[in-house]
Design a protein that fits this description.
The protein is mainly alpha-helical. The chain has one domain. Helices cover 79% and strands 0% of the residues. It has four helices and no strands. The radius of gyration is 15 Å and the shape is elongated.
Length: 118
């Protein structure tokens, strides 16, 4: 299995889990704060699963961008999901680190796009 196919597989798993967490938040959670965390986590997770997929399938893949999106998803969305499921709110300190990883991924993707053949 190539690194490209591993990234595509991970992006697909994150897409699947984003839909699952979004549905869970919409249908199984009554607490409005937890529901909001799940909704935000799922939204960012789905967007960045697609971004990781794009980074992996470019003619010249951008694996560092894809990895940044995947790490950002685990940190950002994962910390929100954990708090929604009852983890201590101090875990919210991890969420901005995921946001930084998302920003790094977008910057790396932009740089990779500029290096793509026309």
């Amino acid at each position: 299995m190539t690194s490209r196919s591993r990234i595509v597989a991970l992006a697909a798993v994150l897409g699947f889990l984003g839909v699952a967490f979004g549905a869970f938040g919409a249908h199984a959670v009554a607490d409005p704060v937890a529901k909001g965390w799940l909704q935000t986590g799922a939204q960012y997770q789905l967007v960045h699963a697609l971004a990781a997929l794009l980074a992996a399938i470019l003619p010249r893949p951008a694996p560092r961008a894809a990895i940044a999106f995947l790490v950002g998803t685990v940190l950002f969305s994962g910390s929100l999901y954990a708090m929604a499921l009852g983890a201590p709110r101090i875990l919210g300190a991890v969420t901005p680190l995921g946001g930084v990883a998302f920003l790094a991924g977008w910057a790396l993707l932009a740089l990779a796009a500029l290096k793509q053949p026309d």
